[in-house]
Amino acid sequence: MSFSENLQTLRKAAGISQEQLAERLDVSRQAVSKWETDGGYPEIDKIIALCDLFGCTMDELVKGSVSSDKNDERRRYDSHFNRYSKLISVGVMLIIQGVALSTLSFGFADAGSLKGEFLNILGTAALFLFIAASVPLFIAGGLEHSDFKKRHPIVPQIYSADEIERYNTRVFPYLIGGGIALIFIGLVLTVIPSLYIWSAAALLGLTGIAAAMMTYACIQHSKYDIDSYNREHEEEDSADSPADPSAAARKKRRSLIRKINGTIMLSATALFLAIGFIWDIWDPSWAVFPLGGIACAIVSVLLKTPDDKE
Predict the structure, then answer these.
(1) Do the domain assignments include residue 105?
(2) What domain range includes position 17?
(3) Residues 36, 16: contact at Cβ < 8 Å?
(4) 110 and 21 both lie in a single domain
(5) What's the CA gap between 40 and 34, in Å, rounded?
(6) Closest by alpha carbon to 50, among 58, 38, 59, 41?
(7) How confident is the model over 198-239, as pLDDT tens digits?
(8) Of 238, 269, 291, at which residue does a domain stop?
(9) What are the DSSP calls for 24-57, one per residue?
(10) Is the whole-model pTM more than 0.85?
(11) Are 59 and 116 within one domain?
């Protein structure tokens, strides 16, 4: 493909007009039109700017074929990350929704009555059923993601600067903000005395949806950060090399964070079940889950260093 065809393909894929491209490059629309009709070539600084804007190399832009290989790579990468985001997000939501249903069931159970025993059994069954349903999602998502990273250790920059900015400014903040808003609504409901048990279950239910939204948003955010994706694999390759001790340190730190956070959430689940089954205190005991989430966030903040973000 010629430079003009490559430029048209990249511009249309990014969803910007000739006028918008001209504004970004500080040239006239007529100049862009000439480039796309083989009427002329931009100066070298404009070509470099185009490469930065569309996330391609100079060879790809000037004499390559950006439409075939890049589109195939993009489809594979997008498809994997979208599926991975959904699997993990739904798994997170199922666990918290299971806790919400069990809390509701335990809350209405009258101690010593047949109805109460039935509701206790129903609540326990709901909790374990939802946890059991989430486990295959986590396993499938984790295995698929690990396999994808092995098969595609390095991914070219397949997103334009506009696409990355659009997600980071128009999608990501609203997903995170929406999740926080749902949790806040749930907290407001808990102060209404007449709702009592319903409010606790509603808080957990809304928290489950919020957690899924924020998990999805964060995984999608990492999808667009291809530099970090590539850098992570490079660090894994060099982690065992004495020539790059900082990479090994970062890998060990991240592994430690994952282990501690996993231990915290498993402990929270064990504590919730112990408090419920041993002391029959199901209603307030659900608080261990948000507390566990806060503890995980604190661990991540304390153990990360500026080097982890470079």
Answers:
(1) yes
(2) 3-63
(3) no
(4) no
(5) 6
(6) 58
(7) 888 888 889 889 989 998 998 999 999 888 887 776 555 444
(8) 238
(9) HHTS-HHHHHHHHTTS----HHHHHHHHHHHT--
(10) no
(11) no
Q: Are residues 21 and 83 in the same domain?
A: no
Q: Burial of 247 by CB count in 10 Å (0-12 exposed, 13-18 middle, 19+ buried)?
A: buried
| Maximum average pLDDT range among 54-63, 175-184, 195-204 | 175-184
CA distance 290 to 265: 10
Domain stops at, among 28, 44, 63: 63
Return the axis-axis angle of helices 44-54 and 18-25, rounded to nearest 10°: 120
Q: Give me the helices (H) in the chain, please.
A: 3-14, 18-25, 29-36, 44-54, 58-63, 69-107, 114-151, 161-166, 172-190, 197-224, 226-238, 245-279, 288-303
- Collapse the DSSP code of 72 into the 3-class scheme (helix H, G, I; strand E, B; otherwise coil) and give the result: helix
**Are the CB atoms for 200 and 190 separated by under 8 Å?**
yes
Residues 85-131 have pLDDT tens digits of: 999 999 989 988 888 888 777 666 655 566 667 777 787 788 889 98
- 207: number of CA atoms within 13 Å, CB side? 24
Same domain for 158 and 209? yes
96 and 179 co-located in one domain: yes
- Per the CB < 8 A criterion, the answer to whether 116 and 41 are in contact is no
Contact 58/47 with Cβ under 8 angstroms?
yes
**Spatial distance between the Cα atoms of 260 and 180, rounded to a whole number of angstroms:** 25
Distance CA 98, CA 109 (A): 17
Q: How many residues does the chain have?
A: 310
